[in-house]
Amino acid sequence: MLLMPVLLAIVITTVQNSTFELVNNNKVPLILYNKDTGQVSTEFIRALDKIGMFELKNLDSSQNEKDIVSRMHAKDALVAIIIPENYTDQTLSKAKNITKEALKNVNIAEDSVTNVSINEVPLTMYYHPVLQQSFRNSINGALRSALQLVQSKYIVRQLYTTVNEQTIPDSLENQITANQLPVNEIPVSRDGSRNIPNATQHNIPAWTIFAMFFIVISLGSSIVREKQSGSFVRLRTLPTNFMVALASKQITYLFVTLLQAAIIFSIGTWLFPKMELPPLNLPADKLGLFLVTLACGWCATSFAICIGVFAQTQEQSNGFGAVSIVILAAIGGLLVPSFAMPASFQLIMRLSPLHWCLEAYYGLFLEGGTLKDILMNIIPLLVITVVLQLIAIYGLKRKNLI
User: How much is the pLDDT for 287?
Assistant: First the structure.
């Protein structure tokens, strides 16, 4: 219950952080096979390099497309681009046609622009099957940006030459094609901070919740053993209330969940920076963090007791408990982000206690909120907890154990 969630948090955070770095910092290996000998393809390659997303690897003239496939199977590159022959002529012809279309209603002599026929041959992109759709979309967007930049440059040159009958100055061309407004990215937060959330901020709360609810294997099995051994029946012969024993068991395991959270949060705060991982930034509202952890732990113990009461054997308790936690984590947003859930799952997602636990933690860690801001997440969690407690008590009475 302590080692497993620690390893899980470290491994998942490391893997996801490496993925973020691949997208944001590292370069994607890309093979370039340029069949064109003109200036446009040279500028396109220069634009790809300027994007900074790709590590360009040019294919020798002695090689062919079969070499691309073999190198990609060997994972020498994840993406390959083939620039077709006469790509420069194709781009220039397209620029002339667009210029004519743009100036057809302007009082310019018809003989200043000639009709050009275009036989377009598209660029070809090979990609390794390990690349997921979202990552391919990012690569596609970068390629299209480079293409648009180069094509726009030649369209501007053609327009200027047609209108002014002279070559466009380099300074003016740069002002037109490279003059883009910057984008200032600001994460939304309740406290006004502008700290960019990282992989640690996302993963540590999520897998802490996962660890809390996995006490169902230990606590559920314990209750099943006590039922099978007759401990519940013997307790009824003693001058005490059985609810005292049940409450003491909950308090013990509630302490375990708090200990789990303390260990995982400590690792994220102090150990992760030494592992070259982003550190965990604890929220400013420490009381809110403690109360959310307490509510999550109580819900986890209530769920485990409910499973243990209704399970007939330890195998049932362990099997159903483990599988149900994975399912609740999946529909609750731990494995797949809640915003990516289909509309049909929105109601089912709100039935998962792990969803409300995660939303409460995210309100503190990612949005910089306080306890007041996440009350609407804690209240459904407490309602689910009380319902689980009542179901467990009903099961104990039905089995004549209390």
Answer: 92
